[in-house]
Design a protein that fits this description.
- By secondary structure, this protein is an alpha/beta fold.
- The chain folds into two domains: 54 residues, no CATH class; 136 residues, no CATH class.
- 33% of the residues lie in helices and 11% in strands.
- It has seven helices and seven strands; from the N terminus they run E-E-E-H-E-H-E-E-H-H-H-E-H-H.
- Strands 5-6-7 form a three-stranded parallel β-sheet, with no helix packed on it.
- Helix 3 packs across helix 5.
- It is an enzyme of class 2 (transferase).
């Protein structure tokens, strides 16, 4: 289970009841540590992913470390020419969940095709991709998925739209917009044996494939 806005368990922004806006609100300390301690006592180790994207304070980091919940790494946020960018695959810690993108991001293909040329070059150089042809975005998508899968992240999540090399027409959600969100549906004919084999190949190559165990 993924907890969105994990920082809200450390601090939350409180607005007086009846306010017409948030001007008079203030940050208040939450009791996340105590809550998660109780949950752990009652249910044992719980599988939770902490959404820790955006502005994260030191106290949020400490709470995440206390819970041992893995945070999130979104590859699309990695390319600012900073070799220490925490979203670059080589900078991932083991206890994290790596994404090509989330439901709020464009598809990998749609995202890349919208980048300016200098940022495209940054992506290619930062990931060490050689021999890329600008007209072959589908191959690049699989190169990026493969590189993400090679990272130390305990878990990698790749949306089906990326494995299918679909563009922005298959984007799931655009935040702060109305109308066409959450309408994409996969067509049965796209779920082919060839697609399954491509996914399996990457998973096996990078030690992320587990065969069924029948006893």
């Amino acid at each position: 289970m993924r907890i969105d806005h994990f920082r809200g368990f450390d601090e939350f922004y409180a607005v007086p009841w009846g306010s017409l806006d948030a001007v008079n609100g203030k940050w208040m300390k939450a009791y996340g540590k105590e809550l998660f301690n109780v949950l752990n006592e009652q249910f044992g180790n719980i599988n939770i992913i902490a959404e820790d994207l955006g502005i994260i304070t030191e106290s949020v980091i400490k709470l995440k470390e206390h819970t041992l919940f893995p945070g999130m790494k979104v590859l699309q946020f990695a390319f600012d020419n900073n070799p220490l960018n925490p979203y670059l695959p080589e900078n991932y810690e083991k206890n994290c969940v790596a994404y090509t993108g989330t439901h709020d991001n464009d598809t990998l293909k749609g995202w890349f095709e919208k980048l300016d040329e200098s940022t495209k070059d940054c992506v290619i150089k930062s990931l060490g991709i050689n021999g890329y042809e600008c007209t072959d975005t589908n191959t690049l998508v699989y190169e990026i998925i493969d590189i993400l899968s090679q990272s130390r992240a305990n878990l990698c999540i790749v949306p089906l739209q990326d494995f299918l090399c679909l563009g922005s027409e298959a984007r799931m959600n655009t935040p702060s917009t109305l109308g066409n969100n959450w309408t994409w549906r996969v067509k049965k004919e796209l779920l082919t044996d060839d697609l399954a084999e491509k996914i399996k190949t990457i998973a096996v190559k990078n030690g992320r494939y587990k065969t069924a165990c029948i006893t």
